[in-house]
C-alpha cells in the first residue's frame, strides 16, 4: 500500500473534492434560478404575495411558528394520490414564497388550495378541537393561540385559493 | 488532579463523546414523545407543555438534536482521536478543540431553545435561526482548521483512505451548511426549496455518510485483524461519492414543480450512487473474508458490519423511492421517516457505537465494563429499529394507496389515519426499544469510565 506517490499530497483531495462539490452546487442549487419556469410569477403567486401589514401575512408567520409545515405539504403533483387536491402546482405559484414551504411529509392533508375546501368557521372549530370536527384526527389542539393569532391564521388558510386564471388547469 | 486533566491528550474526544451521549438520550426522548403523539394527540398536553412540546415545534428539535448533538459530536470526537492516530502525531490546537466541545454544546442548547420558542427557518435539518447558523459555521471552521492542520503536520507520509473521506467531509460540511442556511428572506420559491433539499440531503450524504465510511475503513482492519481488501475499490468509492452525491437534492421534488432536466439531473445520480455504496460494501465483505465467525462474539464488529449492511439497504432503497413510479405512492407518507431512520440510526449511529466501544477503552485505560450489556444494546437497538422501519414502510404503502383511492383530505383522510393506528403502535414500541437500548449503552460506558478512573488512581498511589 505504500507505493502510491500521489496519495502523499493533500492537494489532490482538497482540490478534487471542492471542484466536484461546486459542479453539483452549480447544477442543482444555482442553475434552477435561471430556468424559464422559475422566472415569472403567475396570478396565484400574486394572490399569495401578502403585504407585511395584512392578516394573511401575520397568519403565515403563525403557521411557521407553530410548525404547521412539519405535517402539511403545499405541493400538488400530477399523480393519482393528489387527484382530489386541486390544480397541479406550478413553479410560478411559489414565486414569492419565502421561505418556501412545499413540505416533505403529509401527516395531515395537503393545504395548497385549502381555502377552497372549508369556511372560516370550520377552521376555527377545527383548530380549537380537531377531534370534535374530524373524529380520529391526530392533529394537536391549537386552543392556546390568542384570538388575534387565530383569526390571522384563519385568514391565511382561507387565502390559499387558486385564482380564476388557474381554473382550466388539469387536476389529474 | 487539575494538571493531570489538562495534559490529557484525549480531553477533546472525551468532551465530545460524553456530551453526545447526553444529546442522544434527550433527542430520543423527544422522538418518543412524537411517536406517542401519533397515538394520543393529547399526550402531555398539560399546562405550558402543550406549547413547549407541540408536535410541529419539537419535531425539528428531535432531528437537530440527534443529527448535530448526538451524531455530529460523536463524529467530531472520533475525528479528534482517529486523525492523530493515522498521522502519527498529536492533535493541533488542543485548546481550541476543547473550547469547541463547550461551544458546540452551547449551540445545541440555544438552538433547541430557539426552536421551542417557534423561531424556525423551515429548512429541514437547518431550522435554527440565522444567528445560530453563524455560530455553527464558526464552529465548523474551527473544526476544519484543527483537522487540516493536524493532517498537514503528519509524520506518516501516506494518506490512508479514511483521511480522504475526512478531508472531503470537512470541505463539504461548511460549503453545504452556508449554502443551505442563506438568509431565508433573501431567496424564494421553488429554487429556494431546491436549496433546502440540496442541504437536507447532502448533510446526510457528505457529512454523516462520508465521516461514517471513513470510520468504517479505519475500524474494520483493527476489529478483524485483516488488511483492507482493496485499495482500488476504496479509490473508486471515494471519487464516485464525491461526484454523484451532491446532485441528489432535486429528487425530493420528484413529480413536483420543477423542469424535466432538473428531475433527470437529480434521479440519475441517485441511481448511480449504487456504485460508491457497493464499492464500500465489497471492500467491507472482502476484508471480512475468513473472519465472519468473529462477529458472533465481538460486539463492536457486530455493530460495524450491521451498520454497513444498513447503509447498503438505505442506498438501495433510496434510489428506488426516488423513481417516478414508487415516488408517486410512497412520497410524503410514513415510508419516509422509516427510510430516514435507517442511515442515521441504523448505519451511522451503529458506526458511532462501534467507534465508542473501540476508542473508549483506549482513552480511559480500561476494558468495556460488560460484554453482556453491549450485546443487549445491540439486540434491542436492532429489533427496535426493524420494528420501527418495517411498521413505517408498511404504513407508508397503505397510506399511499389510500390517497390514490381518494382519502386525500377531510373525514376520509382521518379514517385512513385511524386504520394506521396499529402501525403507529408498533413504531412506538420499536422506538421505545431503541431508547432503552441506549440506556444500557450509557450505563456500560459510565461504568467503564468509573473503573478507568479507579484503576488509574490505584496505579498512581502504588507508584
From TrEMBL, chain A:
Domain Cytochrome c per the UniProt entry, residue ranges: 54-161
Keyword annotations: Heme, Iron, Membrane, Metal-binding, Transmembrane, Transmembrane helix
Transmembrane segments: 12-33
Keyword Endoplasmic reticulum appears in the UniProt entry: no
Protein's UniProt keywords contain Ribosomal protein: no
Molecular function GO terms recorded: electron transfer activity; heme binding; metal ion binding
Alphabetical list of Pfam families matching this protein: FixO
Protein name per UniProt: Cytochrome c domain-containing protein
Automatic annotation (TrEMBL), chain B:
GO biological process: aerobic respiration; electron transport coupled proton transport; respiratory electron transport chain
Short name of one Pfam family: COX1
Keywords, ordered alphabetically: Electron transport, Membrane, Respiratory chain, Transmembrane, Transmembrane helix, Transport
Domain Cytochrome oxidase subunit I profile stretches: 195-463
Superkingdom in the source lineage: Bacteria
GO MF term set: cytochrome-c oxidase activity; heme binding
Cellular component terms (Gene Ontology): membrane
Keyword Transmembrane: yes
Membrane-spanning intervals of the chain: 21-40, 60-82, 102-122, 128-151, 163-184, 196-220, 229-247, 267-288, 300-320, 340-360, 380-404, 424-446
Coiled-coil positions: none
Listed name of the protein: Cytochrome oxidase subunit I profile domain-containing protein
Record organism: Anaerobacillus arseniciselenatis
Amino acid at each position: 500500500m505504500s507505493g502510491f506517490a500521489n496519495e502523499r499530497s493533500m492537494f489532490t483531495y482538497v482540490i478534487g473534492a471542492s471542484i466536484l462539490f461546486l459542479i453539483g452546487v452549480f447544477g442543482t442549487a444555482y442553475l434552477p434560478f435561471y430556468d424559464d419556469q422559475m422566472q415569472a410569477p403567475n396570478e396565484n403567486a400574486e394572490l399569495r404575495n401578502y403585504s407585511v401589514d395584512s392578516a394573511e401575512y401575520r397568519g403565515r408567520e403563525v403557521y411557521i411558528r407553530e410548525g404547521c409545515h412539519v405535517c402539511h405539504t403545499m405541493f400538488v403533483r400530477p399523480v393519482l394520490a393528489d387527484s382530489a387536491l386541486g390544480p397541479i402546482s406550478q413553479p410560478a405559484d411559489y414565486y414569492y414564497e419565502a421561505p418556501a414551504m412545499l413540505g416533505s411529509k403529509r401527516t395531515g392533508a395537503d393545504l395548497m388550495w385549502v381555502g377552497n375546501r372549508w369556511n372560516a368557521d370550520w377552521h376555527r372549530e377545527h383548530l380549537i378541537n380537531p377531534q370534535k370536527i374530524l373524529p380520529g384526527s391526530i392533529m394537536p389542539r391549537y386552543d392556546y393561540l390568542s384570538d388575534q393569532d387565530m383569526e390571522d391564521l384563519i385568514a391565511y388558510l382561507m387565502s390559499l385559493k387558486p385564482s380564476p386564471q388557474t381554473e382550466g388547469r388539469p387536476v389529474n | 488532579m487539575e494538571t493531570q486533566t489538562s495534559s490529557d491528550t484525549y480531553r477533546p474526544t472525551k468532551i465530545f463523546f460524553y456530551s453526545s451521549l447526553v444529546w442522544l438520550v434527550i433527542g430520543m426522548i423527544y422522538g418518543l414523545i412524537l411517536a406517542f403523539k401519533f397515538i394520543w394527540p393529547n399526550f402531555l398536553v398539560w399546562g405550558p407543555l402543550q406549547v413547549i412540546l407541540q408536535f410541529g415545534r419539537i419535531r425539528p428539535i428531535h432531528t437537530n438534536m440527534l443529527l448535530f448533538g448526538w451524531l455530529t459530536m460523536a463524529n467530531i470526537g472520533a475525528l479528534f482521536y482517529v486523525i492523530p492516530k493515522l498521522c502519527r502525531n498529536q492533535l493541533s490546537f488542543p485548546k481550541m478543540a476543547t473550547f469547541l466541545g463547550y461551544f458546540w454544546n452551547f449551540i445545541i442548547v440555544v438552538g433547541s431553545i430557539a426552536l421551542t420558542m417557534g423561531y424556525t427557518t423551515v429548512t429541514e435539518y437547518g431550522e435554527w435561526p440565522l444567528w445560530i447558523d453563524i455560530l455553527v459555521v464558526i464552529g465548523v471552521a474551527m473544526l476544519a482548521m484543527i483537522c487540516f492542520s493536524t493532517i498537514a503536520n503528519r509524520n506518516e507520509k501516506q494518506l490512508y483512505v479514511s483521511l480522504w473521506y475526512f478531508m472531503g467531509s470537512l470541505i463539504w460540511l461548511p460549503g453545504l451548511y452556508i449554502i443551505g442556511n442563506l438568509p431565508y428572506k433573501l431567496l424564494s420559491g421553488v429554487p429556494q426549496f431546491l436549496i433546502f433539499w440540496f442541504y437536507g440531503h447532502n448533510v446526510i450524504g457528505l457529512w454523516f455518510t462520508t465521516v461514517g465510511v471513513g470510520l468504517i475503513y479505519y475500524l474494520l482492519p483493527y476489529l478483524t485483524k485483516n488488511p483492507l481488501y482493496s485499495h482500488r475499490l476504496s479509490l473508486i468509492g471515494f471519487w464516485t461519492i464525491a461526484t454523484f452525491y451532491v446532485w441528489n437534492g432535486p429528487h425530493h421534488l420528484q413529480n413536483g414543480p420543477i423542469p424535466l432536466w432538473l428531475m433527470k439531473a437529480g434521479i440519475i445520480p441517485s441511481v448511480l450512487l449504487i456504485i460508491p455504496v457497493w464499492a464500500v460494501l465489497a471492500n467491507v465483505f472482502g476484508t471480512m473474508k475468513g473472519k465472519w465467525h468473529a462477529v458472533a462474539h465481538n460486539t463492536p464488529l457486530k455493530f460495524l458490519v450491521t451498520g454497513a449492511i444498513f447503509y447498503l439497504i438505505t442506498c438501495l432503497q433510496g434510489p428506488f423511492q426516488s423513481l417516478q413510479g414508487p415516488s408517486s405512492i410512497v412520497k410524503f407518507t410514513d415510508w419516509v421517516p422509516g427510510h430516514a431512520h435507517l442511515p442515521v440510526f441504523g448505519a451511522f449511529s451503529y458506526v458511532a457505537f462501534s467507534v465508542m466501544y473501540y476508542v473508549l477503552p483506549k482513552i480511559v485505560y480500561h476494558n468495556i465494563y460488560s460484554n453482556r450489556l453491549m450485546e443487549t444494546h445491540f439486540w434491542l437497538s436492532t429489533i427496535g429499529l426493524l420494528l420501527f422501519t418495517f411498521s413505517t414502510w408498511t404504513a407508508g404503502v397503505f397510506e399511499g394507496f389510500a390517497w390514490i383511492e381518494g382519502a386525500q383530505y377531510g373525514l376520509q383522510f382521518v379514517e385512513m389515519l385511524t386504520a394506521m393506528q396499529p402501525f403507529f403502535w408498533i413504531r412506538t414500541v420499536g422506538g421505545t426499544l431503541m431508547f432503552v437500548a441506549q440506556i444500557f449503552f450509557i450505563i456500560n460506558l459510565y461504568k467503564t469510565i468509573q473503573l478507568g478512573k479507579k484503576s488509574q488512581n490505584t496505579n498512581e498511589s502504588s507508584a
